[in-house]
Design brief:
Chain lengths: ~140, ~140
């Protein structure tokens, strides 16, 4: 008995296998691409930190040079490095942006003919973080 | 007008042959996609490993900045990131310069990790993986 080539069980099985393979391969590529994007962001974050860190080291060098001349005119440094320097009493501090959400905060003590680093840390910029988007989690108290 | 008789292909063997052909073509494409995904995953892992190694090396050098004057350090690594003596798949280049300032020294290090061979199934994937400049000021 002659039969034309039609859709039989084998065709359906092949379509099913191909669909499964396609879904798994697309998932694999999507996951790998997401991992790569995350890795790039990590590297970008480190690069941004070192850029800010290098600038901070340059500012510290410039401050030290001013102190060597017994000068307290930090406006020259502000102009050169494009940052605001807060100077109160014997404490001097400045911020340098690292990413959109973080900045490097440096605080130094100008006593003792030189300077001592009091604070040197990366902190979040709270103005750029929208804390209004809070997740309502269960706090352990029944309603 | 004479009607042409439709050609009837006998037996389910034709269906099997066509199905196997389609399956073979799709399998080749899917294997290519999987290999591409594997290369992406390797690139992702290499990027993070390169970042960690570069940071560790840079920080170590800056801890001993006085020992390194103006110099270039080159280190080769194989594909598993094991140090090798030369012709590595990855090459780390650190250019260090140390300049005297008014009251101290500014050490600048440019850290770069380069991949010599491209990743399979990824176009233009050789070249610089990471590159950044690290500075340290010391006045002691």
């Amino acid at each position: 008995m002659n039969k034309g080539a039609g859709i039989g069980g084998i065709t359906i099985l092949v379509i099913f296998i191909v669909l499964i393979l396609a879904v798994f391969s697309v998932t694999a590529v999507t996951t790998a691409n997401a991992d790569l994007t995350l890795s790039k962001r990590t590297v970008d974050g480190v690069t941004a930190f070192y850029a800010a860190d290098g600038k901070a080291q340059g500012i510290l060098s410039a401050i030290d040079a001013l102190l060597a001349e017994n000068s307290r005119d930090f406006s020259i440094i502000e102009q050169e490095f494009g940052t605001n320097i807060a100077y109160q009493g014997a404490t001097l501090s400045f911020y340098l942006p690292v990413t959109n959400y973080t900045r490097l905060f440096v605080e130094i003590d100008l006593r003792n003919q030189g300077y001592n680093i009091l604070t040197y840390l990366v902190e979040p910029i709270e103005e750029n973080i929208n804390y209004s988007q809070k997740l309502n989690v269960w706090t352990g108290e029944s309603e | 007008m004479q009607k042409r008789e439709p050609v009837k292909i006998s037996s389910p063997f034709m269906e099997i042959i066509i199905s196997l052909g389609v399956l073979a073509i799709c399998s080749v494409i899917v294997v290519g996609v999987f290999l591409g995904a594997d290369s992406l995953r390797k690139k992702s892992t290499d990027l993070l490993t390169a970042n960690l190694i570069a940071q560790s090396e840079a920080e170590y050098i800056f801890q001993n900045a006085a020992d390194y004057q103006n110099t270039t350090i080159i280190k080769d690594y194989d594909r598993e990131w094991q140090p090798v003596s030369g012709n590595g798949e990855f090459v780390m280049i650190i250019n260090i310069s140390r300049q005297e300032t008014a009251r101290g020294f500014m050490t600048t290090g440019k850290v770069e990790i380069v991949k010599n061979t491209p990743y399979p199934y990824l176009k233009n994937s050789e070249g610089t993986l990471i590159s950044y400049e690290v500075k340290r000021y010391d006045n002691e």
